Amino acid sequence: MTGQQPPDRAALVEQTLERGFPLMVFPPALEAFFQQECAADRLRHVTASGVAAVLLFAGMLVSDWWLTPETLGLSAALRLGVYAPVVLAGLWTLRLIRSAQLTEWGIALAGMLAILLTGVILLQAESRWALSRVVELNIIVVYTCTLARFWPAMAMAGWVALVQAFLVFTLPDFTGVVNINATLLVLVVMSFTLFGNYTLERHERYAFLMAQRERALQDALETSHAQLAHLATTDALTDVANRRSAESFLAQTWAHAQKRDLSVALVAIDVDHFKRYNDHHGHQAGDRCLQSVARALTSCSRRAGDLVARMGGEEFLLIMVDVDQRTAMSVAQRVRDVVRGLAVPHGAPGCGPVVTVSVGVATVRPAQEVGLADTLKQADEALYAAKGSGRNRVCTRLVDGEMHCLDEAGLLPQGVGS
Known about the structure:
The chain is α+β, with helices and mostly antiparallel strands. About 65% of the residues lie in helices and about 10% in strands. A hairpin with a 2-residue loop joins strand 2 (about 305-310) and strand 3. The longest helix has about 55 residues, at about 180-235. It is rod-shaped, with a radius of gyration of 40 Å.
């Protein structure tokens, strides 16, 4: 069994355990699932038992030869020419159709056929011991009812009772007591066998329900663990990675990049004039603003190896690996443009008409002389330069040490340099 258990099935299992199943039938949806889960094992078991039944029924030729030799030809024809091919063909059909219901009732039908053929053989017997052979029906009853489910076994028992009654009233009893004793024996055997059959199936069904309950509890536990892991690594407000997750991811990414000689780009993002926005619109509006910005950042970062994280307050960090400075700047400009394109009204005095972000970019190839802390510092310095140059800017420090900043028009703001 794989996959998580549907909630409605788990509830159905609990209801069935509470109410019980005295009639050996679950609610329809659960019954179908039970039959489906048992189908493969049942088919293997029925196939092996069916072949064994053919051999057992054929082996009764010994009894035919010993007690009623006059029926040996008929017995061989019925046991080997009728029962064996019918049962073997039935087993082959069951493996093709794969129907749980057909499998269960096929067991009972095979037993009924064995009872019918035995009755035909005994009716053709001329020996005075023919009636005593009625007790052979008990072998078929026990074998079939042990294998079958309860209701098919009940149908089988009803058929046995009819054939037994017909044989007792038809075959001569020269002793006067064999018919009574044979009937009592069949009734007792059927009663005990059906009781055992009922008990075994009840235990099987109860074990199935308990296994489903355990599975549901395991699924719930795994879901809880997943939720806790999500809460531990995700910012509750924006649903992006939190600072703790970002620091762990960054350390792993840095080590990987250093080992593979790949570049790492850190894009630091800060929402412009966010305190004023909060003061002017309220904290609930501020929360919605941060959520919109987080979604915008996520839309700009679609590679599997990228991570967007909220580092605290209105500060975010985008981590990318195996990108050069030009690509990192392109992504940073897209971040700036997408956030401005949200057109979230700002309206606070002294601020622009809509919410914008300032972005700082640091791109390095990890080496012994360039550490992670230094790279984070470079990204922060670029972010401060973007804010200091008028906000709504993207800044990065070039190889020669000069701070390079771009506004929406892609121009270098006046007064920005090394």
